[in-house]
């Protein structure tokens, strides 16, 4: 535990120095604090310090600069404590943070909070202590007396304890009342949250090194049979091994902790505690698979590109063996003594890729994503800072790009087109792919972008020779691309050839695959049972009380749930408006498909993979392992199963409704539909047998679906580029979205109109809006958005500077200070 304290008079007499620190708060500035001469010789850039902020709060800050210039606007406070002996942030990392803050128009504090594991961000906690000199208990009211009485039994109380005692949230008035009567004292305390993991090992005490003494010990334990049994089990585990044994191995033999403790007290056993990482991987390393002719050609071309450019796009069709090429590049980077960052779009993929890569690289791999605990993430961070052998390859989701690499040599961004690389909430709203390219530039590392369906922006940069370009258009082992068939469900409905949401054609293909003991993947990009529940009489659909959106029906727990704010309620038995008992569901999600499949194929094992079924830490791992072991015949899921997964026995993929994707109100809707359809199609036929794909649509003649059937990426790209040139969208222009939020619609509307007029004065007809989005209220806040299209002939830095000036002017207007303003650069 770390406590705030005052500094001695001796330190105050020494020369005065100052530090600028980054605080984990969303303010666009650094803060200056006073340090002594002694501290100036100890503190380093990149270390943490505990500093006071406001009236009584203590924050963890990162030292950004050390200097001797006193601030003019305010008197600098003294720091409380230096928390680190060595920096936990590297200099290159600080430069990277500055770039993210500048490019994405956020504060360094936002980047700090997003980057550091929560255990590093120690914040103070208010403690309430009894004032021993106070005796006038009669002046206390009932609530104050309850707190006073609790302090009679406990030396200190946290604010959370007081909330529980009074059974209400608003307790500050009670605390202030006790303070004003001088009945209590208040202090702030900082706690270290990270706790290292220690593993206990047992060995014989040095007293029993000789055989004679050992025999004497066993004879002496004849009257203590349980201790004697513990000793015999110990020798059985120790047989042929000079190293200590794990205490938990002895406990597994049925020996209790109390028996082991008794033997330790008798100095029979010695206990040693060894610090270990919470996550580790096998060290049984196998040689990396040899590359085939086409992979070797692509590998050589990538190396040639890297000799001239920092960034290369690998455009490899699905199942072409891109991961094998990545493995060889990673092995070569490790030989140079450098680190590798392997970015993946989905947490679900890390499990699958870990299983493949750990056979090649053993315990050199570390994994970093939000499903790991805070302590596990701290250990990865510390291993990177120390350039440990356990952190030579970092495998993770988008937040991995913010880690403290010390010697980065290669960055791989797999499935670089994925939208999940973009952070939308909260700030910083960075794109991991673009941030990874800048990270590679700062480290002088090479960056490889891989995809079967590159984003239009990346492909455009490759065409403009900004990035290198390598193509891999042959599948591994020359397996044919799957045969894609479009099913016209409009015609099937007319001819009454639909069973629920399945056409007769898709059902026939499924029956054939199941008869051959093959596996099937079905894709529906909506979770839950039904997105709308509607009264058959009056047409009223239950709405979320916090958002302007209908509630999604989840049949498994018979509840209506909002996918935006998390609000949930039990499904009503009758319509809340007219009390009609008949409620109809409209539309369908993965849950409804799963239930239909169980009726259509009762002898088949069906599983569902979406956010609802993979909430646990190992949810993905267990589900994918079951599918790999053929314990599941049909896997239904959302877009998390469309990419990167490699299952040899999957021969059929079904897309239940392609129209939802095509008709989404977004300028990238057609591009994303193509990418999703091609990616999910690539899950089929990854072994010798050619796969089949059935895509159900009401409009099978749509140009994008036709391009999917022929895998014609180039035509799709040209069509999209022509449209974006015509309507001024990326990659030909830059997009900046400004979003305003407030609980009062009138206030946010007036604020948006002011902001819109100011932006039009600066950017003219490049400004669209203000408008209300399709969902105009989320979490009880009304939303207005303004879109700015910045042409390439205007300097981006200059444009952002102008936007920032307008934003600062806006925040200075008293009526608008309560309105939340969000700036999202590259908002797609």
Features:
828 residues; alpha/beta; GIY-YIG endonuclease; 7 domains; seven-stranded parallel beta sheet; six-stranded mixed beta sheet; disordered N terminus
Description:
This protein is α/β, with parallel strands linked by helices and 828 residues long. It folds into 7 domains: 9-120, GIY-YIG endonuclease (3-Layer(aba) Sandwich); 132-184, no CATH class; 197-276, no CATH class; 298-465, Rossmann fold (3-Layer(aba) Sandwich); 483-526 and 592-722, Rossmann fold, CATH 3.40.50; 530-587, no CATH class; 734-825, Alpha-Beta Plaits (2-Layer Sandwich), CATH 3.30.70. It contains 27 helices and 37 strands. The strands form 9 sheets. It has a 7-stranded parallel sheet with strand order 15-16-14-17-18-13-19, sandwiched between helices. It has a 6-stranded mixed sheet with strand order 5-2-1-4-3-6. The chain has a 6-stranded parallel sheet with strand order 20-32-31-23-30-29, sandwiched between helices. A hairpin with a 2-residue loop joins strand 21 (498-499) and strand 22 (502-503). Helix 3 (91-103) packs across helix 4. It is globular and about 85 Å long. Residues 1-15 have low confidence and may be disordered.
């Amino acid at each position: 535990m770390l406590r705030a304290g005052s500094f001695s008079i001796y330190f105050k007499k020494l020369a005065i120095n100052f530090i600028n620190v980054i605080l984990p708060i969303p303010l666009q500035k650094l803060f200056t604090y006073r340090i002594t001469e002694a501290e100036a010789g100890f503190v380093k850039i990149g270390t943490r310090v505990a500093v006071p902020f406001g009236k009584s709060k203590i924050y963890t800050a990162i030292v950004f600069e050390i200097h001797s210039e006193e601030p003019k606007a305010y008197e600098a406070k003294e720091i409380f404590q230096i928390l680190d002996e060595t920096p936990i942030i590297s200099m290159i990392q600080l430069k990277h943070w500055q770039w993210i803050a500048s490019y994405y128009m956020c504060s360094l504090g936002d980047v700090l909070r997003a980057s550091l594991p929560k255990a590093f961000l120690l914040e103070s906690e208010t403690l309430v202590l009894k004032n021993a000199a106070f005796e006038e208990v009669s002046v206390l009211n009932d609530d104050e007396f309850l707190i006073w009485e609790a302090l009679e039994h406990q030396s200190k109380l946290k604010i959370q304890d007081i909330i529980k005692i009074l059974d209400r949230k608003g307790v500050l008035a009670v605390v202030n009342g006790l303070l004003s009567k001088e009945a209590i004292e208040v202090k702030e305390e900082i706690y270290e949250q990270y706790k290292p993991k220690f593993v206990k090992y047992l060995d014989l005490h040095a007293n029993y090194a000789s055989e004679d003494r050992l025999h004497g010990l066993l004879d002496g334990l004849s009257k203590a049979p349980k201790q004697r049994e513990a000793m015999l089990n110990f020798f059985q585990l120790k047989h042929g091994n000079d190293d200590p044994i794990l205490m938990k191995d002895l406990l597994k033999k049925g020996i209790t902790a109390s028996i082991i403790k008794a033997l330790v007290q008798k100095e029979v056993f010695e206990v040693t505690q060894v610090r270990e990482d919470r996550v580790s991987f096998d060290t049984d390393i196998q040689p990396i698979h040899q590359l085939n002719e086409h992979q070797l050609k692509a590998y050589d071309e990538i190396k040639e590109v890297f000799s001239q450019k920092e960034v290369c796009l690998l455009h490899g069709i699905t199942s072409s063996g891109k991961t094998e090429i990545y493995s060889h590049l990673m092995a070569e980077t490790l030989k140079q003594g450098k680190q590798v960052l392997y970015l993946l779009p989905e947490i679900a993929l890390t499990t699958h890729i870990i299983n493949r890569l750990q056979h090649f690289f053993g315990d050199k791999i570390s994994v970093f994503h939000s499903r790991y605990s805070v302590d596990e993430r701290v250990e990865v961070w510390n291993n990177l800072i120390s350039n440990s052998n356990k952190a030579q390859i970092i495998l993770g989701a988008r937040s991995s790009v913010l880690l403290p690499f010390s010697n980065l040599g290669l960055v791989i961004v797999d499935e670089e087109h994925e939208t999940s690389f973009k952070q939308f909430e909260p700030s910083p709203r960075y794109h991991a792919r673009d941030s990874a390219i800048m990270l590679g530039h700062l480290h002088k590392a090479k960056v490889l972008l891989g995809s079967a369906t590159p984003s239009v922006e990346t492909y455009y940069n490759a065409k403009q020779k900004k990035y290198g370009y390598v193509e891999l258009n042959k599948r591994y082992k020359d397996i044919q691309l799957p045969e894609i068939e479009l099913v016209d469900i409009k015609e099937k409905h007319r001819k009454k050839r639909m069973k629920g949401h399945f056409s007769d054609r898709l059902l026939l293909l499924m029956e054939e695959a199941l008869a051959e003991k093959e596996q099937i993947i079905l894709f529906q990009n909506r979770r839950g049972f039904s997105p709308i529940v509607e009264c058959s009489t009056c047409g009223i659909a239950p709405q979320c009380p916090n958002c302007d959106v209908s509630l999604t029906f989840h049949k498994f727990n018979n509840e209506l749930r909002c996918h935006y704010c998390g609000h949930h309620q039990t499904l009503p038995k009758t319509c809340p408006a007219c009390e009609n008992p008949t409620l109809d569901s409209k539309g369908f999600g993965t849950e409804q498909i799963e239930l239909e499949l169980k009726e259509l194929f009762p002898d088949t094992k069906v599983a569902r993979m979406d956010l609802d079924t993979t909430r646990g830490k190992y949810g993905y791992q267990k589900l994918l392992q079951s599918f790999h072991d053929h314990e599941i015949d049909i896997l239904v899921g959302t877009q998390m199963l469309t990419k990167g997964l490699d299952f040899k026995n999957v021969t059929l993929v079904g897309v239940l409704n392609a129209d939802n994707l095509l008709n989404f109100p977004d300028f990238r809707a057609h591009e994303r539909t193509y990418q999703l359809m091609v990616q999910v199609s690539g899950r089929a036929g990854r072994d010798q047998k050619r796969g089949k794909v059935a895509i159900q649509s009401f409009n099978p003649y749509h140009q994008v679906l036709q391009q999917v059937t022929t895998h014609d990426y180039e035509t799709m790209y040209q069509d999209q580029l022509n449209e974006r040139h015509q309507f001024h969208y990326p990659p030909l222009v830059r997009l900046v979205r400004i979003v305003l939020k407030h609980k009062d619609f009138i206030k946010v509307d007036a604020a948006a109109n002011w902001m819109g007029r100011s932006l039009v004065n600066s950017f003219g007809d490049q400004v669209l809006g203000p408008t209300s989005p399709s969902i105009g209220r989320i979490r009880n806040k009304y939303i207005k958005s303004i879109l700015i299209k910045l042409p390439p002939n205007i300097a981006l830095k200059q444009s952002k500077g102008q936007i920032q000036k307008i934003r600062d002017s806006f925040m200075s207007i008293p009526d608008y200070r309560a309105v939340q303003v969000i700036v999202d650069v590259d908002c797609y």
